[in-house]
Design goal:
A hairpin with a 6-residue loop joins strand 2 and strand 3. The strands form 3 sheets. Strands 2, 3, 4, 5, 6, 7, 8, 10, 11 and 12 form a 10-stranded mixed β-sheet that branches. The protein has a 4-stranded parallel β-sheet with strand order 13-16-14-15, sandwiched between helices. It contains 12 helices and 16 strands. The protein has 2 domains: about 210 residues, DHBP synthase; about 90 residues, Rossmann fold. Helix 1 runs parallel beside helix 6 and helix 11 runs parallel beside helix 12. The protein is an alpha/beta fold. The chain binds threonylcarbamoyladenylate and magnesium ion.
Length: about 325
């Protein structure tokens, strides 16, 4: 199968036609690229799992292009859930609600709930509208690999496995959407993202973040290894430890690189010149650039030393991904 990256002008009608024929298509969103299929077509949805090598017990998010579609997909949507949708859609949030029977079990992995997301990316919206059906989609990466934030990342990973990747440039947000479970007694964040606990608390009054040991997975994806680059990655507690880990990697004959914000890199380079990938000036830049930096790092280097970005605001959402990518290894 030949894989083509097409602009919206070249590819919109082709992509919509493929979806209507029961095929999968890759499309950009503001968070990460998605691998989409008609959410009502269980055979099409099965192809997503095949392409990704994803376990069938991990449910998919359903993407819409108009909040009016919510009532077709969900039942008993609470006033609080509607408030969240009103406040943050379109945007980087997925709202878990009770599913309608119209959604096949292949999408929900047999759960009684469904995650609904209304992306803000104009290409995503045009694509979903042109398809005329809601689009079930996970991130467009092979299972356990890093999520793609450019069309080229997708091409590298899925070349030969999909026909069309719609071009949408670099994703502006850069990490996956915040998932909030509105079926829990207290609204619960299952995956942190750009929409923070504080932002949700302002709308809802009360919200908590799921933590603790996953015995029965709440977001089934949480029990799988995730977002990992194909080389070792460690998180350094400060600049001094970063330099030590870097030197030890060099001594092992490796080719290390530091992922950090600009000021941090400047401080390291005053002590010694290091290979680095500059993540930018603040936590929004870091969130936008972190996955792309991991992609570059695994292609060009073989040991990654990452800054600890702390727990303030979206930095904690970034650290959620970094801790998974590093397997929790700290120096
Ligand atoms: O930003 C995003 O959310 C991207 C873009 C493409 O929209 N999508 C994405 O999908 O990250 P995926 O499949 O890579 O991650 C979805 C996560 C998985 O961990 C899955 O287990 C969880 O959401 N999930 C989906 N439906 C759920 C449900 N009904 N209840 C609990 N967790 C759910
Ligand atoms: Mg994913």
């Amino acid at each position: 199968m030949q894989t083509k990256i097409l602009t919206i002008e070249e590819g919109l009608q082709i992509a919509a036609e493929l979806i209507r024929e029961g095929e999968v298509v890759v499309f950009p969103t503001e968070t990460v690229y998605g691998l989409g299929a008609n959410a009502f077509d269980k055979n099409a949805v099965r192809k997503i799992f095949e392409v990704k090598g994803r376990p069938m017990d991990n449910p998919l998010i359903v993407h819409i292009a108009d909040t009016k579609q919510v009532d077709e997909l969900a039942c008993d949507v609470s006033p609080a859930a509607r408030k969240v949708m009103q406040a943050f859609m379109p945007g980087a949030i997925t709202v878990i609600v009770k599913k309608s029977p119209i959604i096949p079990d292949e999408v929900s992995a047999g759960l009684a709930t469904v995650g609904i997301r209304f992306p803000s990316h104009p290409v995503a919206q045009a694509f979903i509208k042109a398809c005329g059906v809601p689009i079930a989609a996970p991130s467009a990466n092979t299972s356990t690999k890093i999520s793609p934030t450019t069309a080229e990342h997708v091409f590298e990973d899925l070349n030969g496995k999909v026909r069309v990747i719609l071009q949408g440039g670099s994703c502006d947000v850069g990490i996956e959407s915040t998932i909030v479970d509105m079926t829990a007694d207290t609204p619960t964040i299952l995956r942190p993202g750009a929409i923070t606990e504080a932002m949700l608390a302002e709308v809802l009054g009360e919200v908590k973040t799921f933590s603790g040991k996953i015995v029965v997975a709440k977001a089934p994806g949480m029990k799988y290894k995730h977002y990992a680059p194909n080389c070792e990655m460690v998180v350094a507690k400060d600049e001094e430890h970063a330099l030590t880990a870097y030197a030890q990697s060099l001594a092992r004959g490796e080719n290390p690189v530091v992922l950090a914000e600009r000021g941090y890199i400047d401080r390291l380079n005053k002590v010694r010149a290091v290979n680095f990938i500059d993540l930018g000036k603040d936590e929004i830049d870091i969130m936008r650039n972190i996955y792309a930096a991991m992609h570059t790092a695994q292609d060009k280097y073989n040991f990654i030393v990452c800054q600890d970005f702390g727990e303030d605001g979206v930095a904690s959402s970034v650290m959620n991904r970094v801790n998974k990518a590093s397997g929790g290894k700290r120096v």
